[in-house]
Amino acid sequence: MKINQNRFQMQLDRSAITLSVICAVQCMLLPITAIMLPTFSLLPFSEEVFHSALLFFVIPISAFAMLMGCKKHKSYDVVGYGLIGLSLLIVSAVWGHDLFGETGEIASTFFGSSILAFGHIQNQRKCKDSCH
């Protein structure tokens, strides 16, 4: 039972890391793609919709993975990384363009994704260390 729970928690961390990377890559590539392929910008799947849809998955997966890991390894510093990363992603998705401009929105999304991914990597490492 404990082995299945450990695997599930590790899979959640990996999923959250993957979603963070997808968010960062999409944020970096969409403006370049829109310039290179102007018809791409006419698609109804805008950057804001993409970020909102991604956050719909990122928030619960990240929160659940972090909480499961902290319950196991009792090291709550990873929650700080998670909160900072998620906060940056949420602010970037909701108000980023208005607050920071296009370049600032991209940068804050990239940093938020990076911090969140770092938190999940730390969570995985601490979980592996607490098993031994």
Show the helix and strand layout.
Elements: H1 2-36, H2 47-73, H3 77-131
Q: Would you mind describing this structure in some detail?
A:
This protein has 132 residues and is mainly alpha-helical. The protein has one domain (2-131). Helices cover 89% and strands 0% of the residues. It has helices at residues 2-36, 47-73, 77-131. α1 packs antiparallel against α2. The longest helix is centred in the C-terminal third of the chain and has 55 residues, at 77-131. The protein is elongated, with a radius of gyration of 16 Å.
Provide a brief overview of the structure:
With 132 residues, the chain is mostly helical.
Index terms:
single chain; 132 residues; mainly alpha; 3 helices; 89% helix; elongated
Taken in chain order, the helices and strands follow as HHH
The description of the largest β-sheet is: none
**Domains, number:** 1
Q: How many H/I helical runs?
A: 3
The assigned structural class equals: mainly alpha
Instruction: Give the helix proportion (percent range).
Output: over 70%
> Whole-number average pLDDT?
81
Percentage of residues in strands:
under 5%
C-alpha-based Rg, rounded: 16 Å
- Which descriptor suits the 3D outline? elongated
Low-confidence stretches: none
Termini separation: 17 Å
By DSSP, the count of extended strands is: 0
